[in-house]
Amino acid sequence: MAGGASTPALIRAVTAAGGFGFLPAGYKTTEALAADLAATDTPCGVNLFVPGPPEIDEATFREYARRIAAEGEPYGLDLADAPLIHDDDHWSDKIDLLVRQPVPVVSFTFGLPDPAALAALRRAGTRTLVTVTSVAEARAARDLDVDGLIAQGTEAGGHSGVHDPRRPAAPTSTRPLVADVVAATGLPVLAAGGVAGPDDVRDLIEAGASAVVVGTLLLRTDESGANRTHRDALADPARASTVVTRAFTGRPARGLRNTFIDRYEAAAPLGYPELHHLTRGLRAAAAAAGQPDRVHLWAGTGYRSATTGPAADVIDRLTSAL
């Protein structure tokens, strides 16, 4: 989970409980990723965001920036004149780091990695996974000779891993997606999305998953790096639903419904990471001020089952039906 939620402490706790943790590289400098790897000090995976081409032009970006400008005023932020920023999330530098300091597994989200990067990681002894949201994406990833797939159903919290948000496939629930991807590719498949308890884990394994991925259920644990505003919102009875939105980052993502989404979703363009950079300061300021209606409250549909306490308790509970 990028954005600070998945800490080295969380990865260590999950691993000690019998799971396998992933460090997020997204939104981090290469130096910060290296520091996190050193602090984790246990075998783990790393997730990388696959960069894409610019998706938004200056005029469209500027129109949306002016539309949401009033949201930044309480924090002294001038969103209307914010720069349009496109970056590749330090892609090449992070690949180079992971070749020099190999980890057991690297996973990719938002698209297909280039063959050169895959080849370099294979030579370093790393296994590779690609997040997919449809059978077509799964087949394209299989053709790159990756080691496995992460089948992300529509119930998953946070960003959708859809390869092309301009031409997404019909939303598919995790269980049927897993079964279809296993049948279509023959590769090991990890299931992600909507896990609320041990019955979900058992059902996904029965559908053909080799492993089950969880994120939202760990957000309120002792070792999570999620901010207090996000943690409290997950337990707030008034937060009655999750929705898929691009209002905060310009890319579809599932989170708790709030007033920012209600106000701006209809007008929000696609444009990642440009809109992510536009709203980043706003989201941070609102979270620090305890104002959840201007924060991207990422959460999967199983968010009501997210509990406080040690992460190990969550892992123990999820595996109790196996």
CATH-derived topology of the domain at 1-52 and 88-219 and 310-322: TIM Barrel
Regions with pLDDT < 50 over 5+ consecutive residues? none
Write the element-wise H/E pattern from the N-terminal end onward: HEHEHHHEHEHEEHEHEHEEHHH
Mean pLDDT: 97
Would you mind describing this structure in some detail?
- By secondary structure, the protein is an alpha/beta fold.
- The model has no long low-confidence stretch (mean pLDDT 97).
- The chain has helices at 8-16, 30-40, 58-67, 69-72, 91-100, 115-123, 135-142, 174-185, 198-206, 228-235, 259-264, 274-288, 311-318; strands at 22-24, 45-49, 105-109, 127-132, 148-152, 158-159, 189-192, 211-213, 242-245, 253-256.
- It has a domain at 1-52 and 88-219 and 310-322: Alpha-Beta Barrel (TIM Barrel), CATH 3.20.20.
- A seven-stranded parallel beta sheet has the order 1-2-3-4-5-7-8. The chain has a three-stranded antiparallel beta sheet with strand order 6-10-9, with no helix packed on it.
- The longest helix has 15 residues, at 274-288.
